[in-house]
Amino acid sequence: MKTFTSLQQIQPLLINGDLSLEELVTSYLSKIEFSKTNSFIEVFGEEALLKAKEVSSKIKHGSQGLLAGMVIGIKDNLCYKNHKSSGASKILENFESIFSATAIERLINEDAIIIGRLNCDEFAMGSSNEKSIYGPTLNPHNHSKVPGGSSGGSAAAVSEGLCLASLGSDTGGSIRQPASFCGVIGVKPSYGRISRYGLFAYASSFDQIGAFTHSIDDAALMISIMSGQDEFDSTTSKRNPPSKGPVFPKSKLSIAVPKDYLNFQGLDTEIKEKFFLDIEKLKTLGHKINYVDFPFIKHIVPNYYVLTTAEACSNLARYDGAHFGFRSSESKDIESTYLSTRTKGFGIEVKRRIMLGNFVLSAGYYDAYFSKAQKVRRLIKNNTKDILENNDFILTPTTPKTAFNLGEINDPIDMYLQDIFTVHANLTGMPAISVPLKRHSNKMPYGYQIMTNNFEEDLMFNTAKYLTEHLKQS
Ligand code: GLN
């Protein structure tokens, strides 16, 4: 079967009867079966086929939802009623959710088909998808490379055509970085756009659910459908959802390029050179480029790790061997249950973060680390707001480098620095998208990141379309 890259290609064929949804689902299932990337942890084959049948009959009666024909994979940190979900962690072994995440429910209400759950770093902590109890996901463009993380399975599955779209979560770049590494679109909406109900909490003031697609229209449609207030998440915004597809082409853009990003010594020289060529191109197209100061660049990753580990150690306290999933066989009393279950159930990176989080929150260090980091976050927000007062968006490469080799980065700090260009949007709560525009001479894809002011998703999607038309390397 032909490989489809957008719902716009699929829906007319389904409606005029030139394509059968059951056959489409069958073809995804067989691709998944033969895939070698380890993107899927579990496939909901029978169920997906049943749902395909149901949606087909709705199509015949003209009563189908907006996502009829969209086959979606979900990251393994989202709750889906009566299905397993583990956060790729041993501690949630055999845990089955009794409710669905609001985001998933809204997609299903529009007739999306959920085809399976996707690999990721344990509890969404990582940048390479190597920290999963299911083993690493491989980058579909080169199996010796990582797909990025933590939503590596979500990015790889869409890139490889194992599903049309997928859901991920982004706390510091977990959607945009793997999207860049795998050559697909990855969107993190504004904080508060999409309900976090049913998403495993990592760092609650940073976490957002978002989407991976090949088409900007599909991404805009999914975000719009998932958006909006939810009584189960008090941080969701009352604003109207963004539009269902990019609407207006803005003719003259004012583009902020933070000099400090481009001076980051870890930035690959080829990525940097091509980026400057593209800046020149945008100038000749009549847009205004403003090189802006963002002096916080060296504080941004430490700031992120102080705050997110603090939130994580509290959020992960619920995995205690009493409530969900795994309980160690060495549990004798309450103390040994906690100790042994958490020692055996969590992987090394998760434990590192729980310890770091407890440290920055401890009585003697709270003011020096946590409280100070909150103040720095405010300064970062203010500085970024100022930049976006005078500019439509901030443009940067999404990642300093293309996908690295499996096993290449072992030092946690080096791994943390992979997020240097993406954590900014989470610290400020702003929406950001990675658009797959480029291919490196090493043959790996990479993306550019567009970050707009809070709740300016429409402008972000429009710009993504515009840049795709003008800067996409064939
Ligand atoms: N790589 C970052 C981290 O490990 C981001 C993860 C995420 O966005 N979930 O925290």
Describe this entry's structure for a reader.
This protein has helices at 7-15, 21-34, 45-61, 102-109, 152-160, 176-182, 216-226, 259-262, 269-284, 297-315, 334-345, 348-361, 367-389, 412-416, 423-428, 457-471; strands at 40-43, 71-75, 113-118, 165-170, 185-188, 208-213, 254-258, 288-292, 393-397, 432-439, 445-451. It has an 11-stranded mixed beta sheet, with helices on both faces. The longest helix has 23 residues, at 367-389. The chain is globular and about 65 Å long. The two termini are 24 Å apart. With 474 residues, it is of the alpha/beta class. The model has no long low-confidence stretch (mean pLDDT 96). It contains 16 helices and 11 strands. It binds glutamine. Residues 124-127, 150, 169-174, 202, 308, 419 line the site of glutamine (GLN).
Unreliable spans are none
Q: Quickly give the structural class.
A: alpha/beta
The overall pLDDT average reads 96
Radius of gyration: 21 Å
How many DSSP-defined strands?
11
Strand content: 5-15%
Specify the biggest β-sheet. 11 strands, mixed
- Shape designation: globular
Secondary structure layout plus pairing:
Layout: H1 7-15, H2 21-34, E1 40-43, H3 45-61, E2 71-75, H4 102-109, E3 113-118, H5 152-160, E4 165-170, H6 176-182, E5 185-188, E6 208-213, H7 216-226, E7 254-258, H8 259-262, H9 269-284, E8 288-292, H10 297-315, H11 334-345, H12 348-361, H13 367-389, E9 393-397, H14 412-416, H15 423-428, E10 432-439, E11 445-451, H16 457-471
Parallel strand pairs: 2-3, 2-4, 7-8, 7-9
Antiparallel strand pairs: 1-3, 4-6, 5-6, 5-10, 9-11, 10-11
Helix pairs in contact: 2-3, 5-6, 10-12, 10-13
The structure holds glutamine.
